[in-house]
Amino acid sequence: MHLIFEITVILFSSMLAILVSKRIGIPAVVGQLLVGIIVGPTLLNLVHQSQIIHFLSEIGVILLMFLAGLEANLTLLKKYLKPSLLVAITGVVFPLVIFYFTTKATGYSTQTALFYGIVFAATSVSITVEVLQEYHKLKTRTGAVILGAAVADDILAVLLLSFFVSSRGASPHLIMQLVAQLLFLVFLLLAVKYFIPMLYRLVDKLRFFEMESYLALLICFAFALMADAVGMSAVIGSFFAGLAIGQTKQVMVIEEAISHLGYSFFIPIFFTSIALPLRFDGVLGHIWIIILFTILAVLSKLLPAYFVGRGFKFNHSDSLTIGGGMVSRGEMALIIVQIGLTAKIISNAVYSSLVIVVILSTIIAPFILKFSFEEGKPFKK
After folding, report:
1. CA distance 263 to 294
2. What's the pLDDT tens digit per position in 173-224?
């Protein structure tokens, strides 16, 4: 029954956090992230990062990205592919270079410095998606650029991590893995354009309870499993599954059913779980590093994306939205940090510091987005 108690605490706290966030005018996802700090080991110690909580949170982020795919405008994604790719590339290169040299300057080894760069090269699109949905910006041209860039960013980060792990002798089959990832990406593109729409046309005549949503979940989890099997993030698979199903005429029915399933249970658990690994062990000894790295984490994503947006003729507020949408690190960075701790690349104290920086950047990102939305509103007398 203890697990049921923890889930009850998460759901009740998330509900209160959303209500309070809306009342004081901050993005609701910030309140949900803070819930993880309040009810987790950091403060009240009511909820812990168990295997089951982690499992439920994985389903939450998979469903969240699936919904993002369902709501995405494929025409806009294609139209703004060039700025998306450039935002992704600069958003990987700049943090990689900046954190590498900064970490080297603080006395760490080349291997550790490169690892830091990879940690902060990753972008968490899930947090940004939630804010874009809350403010009804997901189907705009800036939403299309952010979605395309974040997915490409995740792919690049996974490839970087694969090379890094391989260089340490942990992955002798790197070439095979890279080939599998490229083939999977080709499969995803074909699925979006041909396979999934064709499948839904075939099953359109079948009528039984929730057939459309049942099949959608099956495709979503299958794509997530395939992405994970080739060494990519599961959310890449679920996003493309949503994008594919978004081209079918059943999309409205499916979106409503999956939204109810996700937002009533799994997605609040995901947002809360992000902050559960937070610890303050040895933080005081690294406080200035944490502050410096948090500033660099924000600026190394915000500025490149902002200037790419301006270069493609987006106005100031839209460019700021694109930059703010790339700032959040979230679950992807936490996974990489965990890999570093397990492989003994970093110590427990460094792990705690990195987790704090990741969570701080994740909390800051929605505020930047909200500010950019306010900037973009027409002036009213």
Report:
1. 30
2. 677 877 888 899 899 999 998 899 888 888 776 666 678 888 999 999 999 9
Under DSSP, is residue 122 helix (H, G, I), strand (E, B) or coil? coil
Residue with tokens 């459309």: 212
Please, is 144 exposed, middle or buried when counting C-beta atoms within 10 Å of its C-beta (0-12, 13-18, 19+)? buried
pTM score of the predicted model: 0.88
| Residue 348 · residue 356 · CB < 8 Å | no
Reading the block at residue 264, the tokens are 């009533």
Q: CA 250 to CA 245: how far, in whole Å? A: 8
Q: With contact defined as beta carbons under 8 Å apart, do 381 and 144 qualify?
A: no
Q: Which helix (H) or strand (E) holds 276?
A: none
Res 379: pLDDT: 43
Tokens of 368: 């930047």
Segment among 60-64, 246-250, 306-310, 323-327 with least mean pLDDT = 246-250
Residue type, 272: T
DSSP 141-172: HHHHHHHHHHHHHHHHHHHHHHHHHHHTTS-T
- Return d(Cα 304, Cα 154) in angstroms, integer: 17
Residue 158 corresponds to which tokens in the numbers above? Answer: 């996974």
Please, which pLDDT band fits residue 310 given cuts at 50, 70 and 90? very high
pLDDT in tens, 117-158: 999 998 887 888 989 988 888 889 999 999 999 888 888 887
d(CA 116, CA 351): 11
Are 275 and 33 contacting, i.e. CB atoms less than 8 angstroms apart?
A: yes
Q: Which of 91, 116, 8, 57 is nearest to 272 (CA)?
A: 57
Residue 327 CB-density burial (10 A; 0-12 exposed, 13-18 middle, 19+ buried): buried
